[in-house]
Amino acid sequence: MGGLGAGLMLASVGSGVSAAPTRKIGYAIVGLGSYATRQIMPNFAGCEHARIVALVSGTPAKLDSYGAEYGIPKTHRYSYADFDRIRDNPDIDAVYIILPNSLHAEYAIRAAQAGKHVMCEKPMATSVADCQAMIAASRKAGKKLMIGYRSRFEPYNRLAIDLVRGGHVGPTRLITAEHGFPIKPDQWRLDKPLSGGGSMMDIGIYSLNAARYLTGEEPVEVTAVESTDRADPRFRTVEDRISFLLRFPSGVIADCISSYSTGHNSYRIHGTQGWIGMEPATPYAGQSMTIRKNGVTAPRTPPAPAKNQFAAQLDHLAECILTDKTPIVPGEEGLADMRVIEAIYQSAAQGRSVRIGA
Amino acid sequence: MGGLGAGLMLASVGSGVSAAPTRKIGYAIVGLGSYATRQIMPNFAGCEHARIVALVSGTPAKLDSYGAEYGIPKTHRYSYADFDRIRDNPDIDAVYIILPNSLHAEYAIRAAQAGKHVMCEKPMATSVADCQAMIAASRKAGKKLMIGYRSRFEPYNRLAIDLVRGGHVGPTRLITAEHGFPIKPDQWRLDKPLSGGGSMMDIGIYSLNAARYLTGEEPVEVTAVESTDRADPRFRTVEDRISFLLRFPSGVIADCISSYSTGHNSYRIHGTQGWIGMEPATPYAGQSMTIRKNGVTAPRTPPAPAKNQFAAQLDHLAECILTDKTPIVPGEEGLADMRVIEAIYQSAAQGRSVRIGA
Predict the structure, then answer these.
(1) Which of A53, A63, A224, A308 could form a disulfide bond with A344, CB atoms 3.0-4.6 angstroms apart?
(2) Which of A259, A264, A270 has its CB closest to that of B262?
(3) Which Gene Ontology terms cover its molecular function (chains A, B) (predicted)?
(4) Range of the domain at A43
(5) Of the candidates A245, A263, A292, which has its C-beta nearest B243's C-beta?
């Protein structure tokens, strides 16, 4: 997708629904971990077009407590064993999959086969093949598939995209994007069969996705270096740090960092006349932008949004369902990231640059 | 050189001369371009142990005007044709070579053969072979050879080294170092026969040298990607941007940027407990340090020095001559950078990681 096309699609975000929707889209939340229960579920309160109608969990106590808290009747609470029964529940329009990465594909495909639209957390899956199978399943079912790239619904990131694409600091020549945190031991993210990989799958994907949405281009070459202390019990099966360099068709290079041992949350777009910096860039809240242009460095603040990034993301899929439009971050967006992630791992393993696509 | 050795050597900088010197060391300035005339020559006024005693230039008008300004008699003004006559001038203890890069080796060697100590601007030369020849010539003459790495004499950079080596934010895991500026056309730096290369030789060397002095380690592997628009008339013979990843024996990765089309001057050392950031990191003046530790981000300011980085650098070689010590940035330091620079160019050209040394 070229810069113009992506820009046009972005412009439609939050522009409202042309035909006023008559009802709210009902979501089933699949997986009741901390991201689901602390970030996603509370934010339905800020949605115009979306509501929680069902819960799916392997832990009966969670179904009981969150069911009571959100007023979900017992008929709308599911275990994974009876997940496929969502087919028979007309209140469920869509599922939001917030499971360990390696389970995304199975549940997205089963949801599509049950006739439901799908929102799936990133990374979309743990392989290109799984991403392609998910896209095929949703297409066959005639249902929407969207990936949870929340930053695309966040005002600072949207302003950064607009400024960069508009040439605010001249043509882009170089981007730096860094994401990382010191990870705590003993969690599924450190277990490769569940996570599919280490920091790259979890937090490095923010650096990658930012480089893609800031340029509006697809990288044609990736060069990556990994550094992992395998004596650290956290990193027995997954990588710690990966630095990766993306080459885009325009000649832009993106220098990206993914880390499970150091704290990073920033990107900076360098044009010929200055730079646009975000630090932090992609937290749940508290983004900050600084622009350097003509030798002057100053903060920049977009107008406060009507709803936060979580509510806007949930509403976006709902609006797409109600008006039969394609989400700005469809399955193809998750697939595009996964293609690059596979190339990053290949480059790091082989010690050479890897071409992508064609 | 290990971290401990480098730290001990650093501790001796500016600690004064044990045997009080009885005279100031006389420098001949070789090359009267803007760095020599605007940055170096005015700063002799702040030196305790160094003074200008001679000038070398191919432009008679410059010899006249700067000779008059600095009170250099006509007997102490030289053209390049009669450069070797400095041998017969006992007032000249040392020469400071501030010529286009590809001329460094020739004049450093001729100066050593004339029995003079040498201060040489960075990059030391344009090849490992030239660096080795310069070291051999100075050694044969029994004279000092020092490279103009001024940041090693600058208080913020010295504080950064001390904090990092002392584990202030935990063990170092990752470093970013970025240097670049949009270069103006029509200058010797863009003419490969004179410069030996593009941004990497000129400004990227600051990123490389910082990664080495902050870790106190020598990189064992380099992975580099170049991006140059050869249609831009500035970049007909030299590179624009190079991003390079250095792997150190401890497992630290340094993500470095060199650019002739975008503005950068920063580095950040990421430890397991936070980071130490410098932006700007290596300007002539105005360094700024920020430290993030235990979730708190705050500025940090070292005590004001008795003399600035330029005077301290000039005095350091003078002190080493007067007390017969080895400079903290001897020819071997320039050679070490040049080894990595050759590997960076090789990696970028071949699209693969390149092992260094051993």
Answers:
(1) A224
(2) A270
(3) nucleotide binding; oxidoreductase activity
(4) 12-150+310-327
(5) A245
